[in-house]
Amino acid sequence: MISPDQVVAMIKASLPDAEVDVQDLTGGGDHYQVAVVSSAFSGCSLVKQHQMVYGAVREAMSSEAIHALALKTYTPEDWQTAQAR
């Protein structure tokens, strides 16, 4: 089991400017929904953005400490647009 704070720390270690919101979907500490806002995503495809986040949590996923991870990734500009809706 991994805590939401640990997931945030892993992502921020790889993407230091990231704003990260983690929700435990089942209460079991292994199924998470994560929203990440980072300027590092600028100019990257959605697939590349997700790969960057998966890279940050690779060890936890390969050990199955995280069983499922639903991702939403945004550049700061995309985040502002999404919030304005």
Topology of this structure?
Elements: H1 4-14, E1 19-24, E2 31-37, H2 46-56, H3 58-62, E3 68-74, H4 76-84
Parallel strand pairs: 2-3
Antiparallel strand pairs: 1-2
Helix pairs in contact: 1-2
Give a quick rundown of the structure:
The chain is of the alpha+beta class and 85 residues long.
Task: State the main characteristics.
GMP Synthetase, Chain A, domain 3; 85 residues; alpha+beta; 3-stranded mixed beta sheet; globular
What is the second-level CATH architecture?
A: 2-Layer Sandwich
- Tally of DSSP β-strands: 3
Query: What percent of the residues sit in helical stretches (DSSP H or I)?
Result: 40-55%
**Sheet with the most strands: spatial strand order:** 1-2-3
Radius of gyration (CA) equals: 12 Å
Name the shape in a single word. Answer: globular
CATH topology: GMP Synthetase, Chain A, domain 3
Q: What is the CATH homology-level superfamily?
A: BolA-like
Q: In the CATH hierarchy, what is the class?
A: Alpha Beta
Taken in chain order, the helices and strands follow as HEEHHEH
- By oligomeric state, this entry counts as single chain
Going by helix content, strand content and strand pairing, the class is alpha+beta
Poorly predicted residue ranges: none
Query: How much of the sequence is in beta strands?
Result: 15-25%
Total individual domains: 1
Mean pLDDT: 95
Query: Helix segment count?
Result: 4
Distance between the termini: 35 Å
- Please describe the biggest sheet, giving its number of strands, its sense, and whether it closes into a barrel: 3 strands, mixed
